[in-house]
């Protein structure tokens, strides 16, 4: 793995702040919303993290991490539009939850990939993107995401009653 640049360190530090804040917000409020200060912080920091990811090219050209950054920006925009404009009426809150929560998945995939490919220094846990350990983590994150979205849908539905 190439050395981390200043932009890479900035991106990584902000990414850690975003992920911790995102999980805190989901734990406390069940959904991410810019109406809550922690949700607003999550959205803004995630915007910075995704934007900074688009400037990191130390592993070649435009890759999967860049695609995830673009998907993050799209999901943030979608979640924000659903929250503020309520494009789909009463269903908007479900799309808002899907948009904002999917950004946590988009954070976690490159985070675990970079972590396992960099540490321990000199003898990283994995050396390829197809390594079973890495794939297992990514599948676990995907499963947690689906369980979380389903839980949010039930919680949002219960709020209507």
Give the key terms:
161 residues; mainly alpha; 5 helices; 0% strand
Explain this structure to me?
- The chain has 161 residues and is mainly α.
- The protein has one domain.
- It is built from five helices and no strands.
- The chain has helices at 6-29, 37-53, 64-84, 92-118, 132-160.
- α2 runs antiparallel to α3.
- It is globular and about 55 Å long.
- The model has no long low-confidence stretch (mean pLDDT 95).
Mean pLDDT: 95
H-E string: HHHHH
Q: How much of the sequence is in beta strands?
A: under 5%
How many structurally independent domains? 1
Largest sheet: none
Characterize this entry briefly.
This protein is mainly α. Helices cover 73% and strands 0% of the residues.
SSE layout and pairing:
Layout lengths: L5 H24 L7 H17 L10 H21 L7 H27 L13 H29 L1
Helix pairs in contact: 1-2, 1-4, 2-3, 3-4, 4-5
């Amino acid at each position: 793995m190439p050395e981390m640049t200043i932009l890479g360190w900035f991106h990584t530090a902000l990414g850690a702040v975003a992920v911790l804040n995102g999980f805190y917000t989901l734990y406390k409020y069940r959904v991410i919303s810019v109406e809550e200060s922690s949700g607003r912080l999550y959205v803004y920091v995630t915007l910075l993290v995704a934007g900074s990811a688009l400037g990191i090219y130390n592993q070649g050209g435009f890759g999967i991490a860049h695609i995830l950054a673009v998907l993050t920006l799209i999901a943030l925009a979608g979640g924000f539009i659903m929250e503020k404009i309520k494009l789909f009426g009463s269903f908007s809150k479900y799309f808002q939850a899907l948009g904002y929560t999917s950004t946590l998945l988009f954070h976690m995939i490159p985070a675990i990939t970079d972590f396992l490919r960099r540490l321990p220094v000199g003898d990283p846990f994995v050396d390829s993107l197809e390594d079973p350990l890495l794939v297992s983590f990514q599948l676990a994150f995907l499963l947690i995401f689906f369980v979380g979205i389903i839980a949010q849908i039930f919680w949002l539905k219960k709020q209507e009653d």
